[in-house]
Input
Amino acid sequence: METNLLEIIYLIGSITFILGLKMLSHPDSARKGNLIAAAGMITAIFGTIFLYHDVEGNSLGNYIWIFAALIIGTVVGFYSAKKVQMTAMPEMVSLFNGMGGACAAIISIVELNHFFHAPHPIESFVTNGHPLLNGQVLIMSLGLIIGSVSFAGSMVAWGKLNGKVKDFSFPGQQFMNIGLMLAILALTVFMMFVDVETAQMLMYVIFSLSLVYGVLFVFPIGGADMPVVISLLNSFTGVAAACGGFLYSNSVMLTGGILVGSAGTILTILMCKAMNRSLMNVIIGSFGGASASNPAAAGAAGDIREITMNDTAVLLSYSKSVVIVPGYGLAVAQAQHVCHELEKTLEEKGVEVRYAIHPVAGRMPGHMNVLLAEADVPYTKLLEMEEINPEFPNTDVVLVIGANDVVNPAAKRDPSSPIYGMPVLDVELAATTIVLKRGMAKGYAGIENELFYEPKTRMLFGDAKATLQKLVAEIKAL
Amino acid sequence: MDINFTLFLILNFFYSYRELITIVILSIFLGIEIIGSVPSVLHTPLMSGANAIHGVVIIGAIIVMGKAEPDNYLALILGFLAVILGTLNVVGGFVVTDRMLEMFKKKKK
Output
């Protein structure tokens, strides 16, 4: 009776996940979709705690431990998710993803240990002399490998995004990674043919090697590609969770995990497409090492022209149409509110102000939309790249705030550039481009930006927030 | 191990797990269908939402914890840790996603 009820709860859980993901892919229903999936998750969790029975009909114990862990996790998770700054959200997603991966790996370790002490294959057939040769061991091992890779990889991605870990690669690393993966798989197969003591030891070897693989997998990938990598690791964790579902014949874990696995893979590919790159290209990490072999762009260096605050204020105030191109620098400086103020001040003076949003501006797709929405910039003012690009020739002033690679014309002109082929904003077509930057530092791709040396470009150096504040004051004083 | 035996093992695996394998295959296609065409603005919230959903792995952690014998310290400690990590994934994941989407909502009106 209770088991049947639990099955129904799991079915409902699966449906909420499907609906949730479906609704999350439309702007109007996204928030509701997230809440529906969360409600399904909570029901499934409490259903499991109170209604779960194993094959022999025993219910779960250790309630104090379970609730203590749930409370600790909830408090820490809730608090850190509420506290995190908008700019640090991708890191946070990576961190939580790593937690899920670690959770899946631990489940596999405990269950494998359990199995080594008392093999109980549910398959109808046991191979003589090889008690470990069965599907359960295979699935637990896969859960262990994928979960560990996802955990270690997510931790490196997290470190890279908050600047603690630098890009790192060495010649032949790709071959070493492939070799390592093959070794892990070979060991897993081997483990199914040995006695339980050896297998137990091998399990920890596989675990350690998987962690190393996860680190090496993410290390060479450039920081700008981190959202893609996180999305990929996200789908890995989904598959690891599904392995748990397979093990416990648990339908909600299975559907939830596989849905995330397949949807996450598609999402990863969509993200790559937005940058006009292939997934292979991202994984091999062409951003990391290629920048050094790009003397052509470095040779483009010429004179830059600075502009004063006062000139900028005048230029902006007497324009008809201004386009603001926000980038990561805006997010770092937390300048979204003052940016909105600038926009309002200019609109009061009769200037048409719009925002050009590059699909991968910032550190994650949609980063700028979220950031500007926080400052109450109206939705209708944010234009996607396809909409705004034809408008640039009729624009008087483009104000680039903390963006770099997404406005680099080298992506269109220089086939040797590592970002060649990536769609960019055609800001150089506007009458004047003002680039607001802290200094002449390179963007995330680590390459020189020809835009800064264009005759129509003016540089305005300084912190985005402080500079914009002064700019607003200047414009108001005019 | 000859070919016939290997084949037998594989078939046996599929037979034992036929229902689960059906769910897996249908879910793969469903996942692909659902995402189909999503505007790039929603890539990150969607990734974050999916991240929260794979937190369903916590159910496995709860089962591990609940089944652990009182004298099996390894299972107890690891299970406890797994439930904490799983909860972090679920709670953190959904809350972060909600915070991202909260901002989309505001500008709609």
